[in-house]
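Quick question, first post here. What does this chain look like in 3D?
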Amino acid sequence: MTEFASSTAPADVVRRQYLASAAGDLEALRAALAPDVEWTEMAGFPLSGTYRTPDGVTSNVMEKLGEDWDGWTAHDDTYVVDGENVVVLARYTAVNKATGKPIDVRVAHHFVVRGGLIVRFEQFVDTALVLEAMTP
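> Answer (accepted):
Ran it through. Tokens below.
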């Protein structure tokens, strides 16, 4: 196992979550989440709300995104780390299956990592751009 794969450094844990998500590896994604994780999708986002447990997150967020979008990907590019807090500036790209409209929107994610696991996540995104792509 490589050092990165076993690292409990907050930024490494978060990066593994992005890699797992991009690869569609929900098992690896769940492995990065604490059993009592709180995952909050922003108000106004199609999946808005707070989800708990690794299975709750993947079934209510990642699987639903896969049902509605082709190629949904969060492209992480800038990490700001302060202890257990990791803020990632990124962008979402995808094509809505119902409308055929693409998105390419900037996003910020705030993670809290403790003991090598993500315990909290909060999303910040321009929800109007996402909803516009979903509107025929």
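The beta strands are 33-41, 49-52, 69-82, 85-96, 102-114, 117-125.
The two ends are 47 Å apart (CA to CA).
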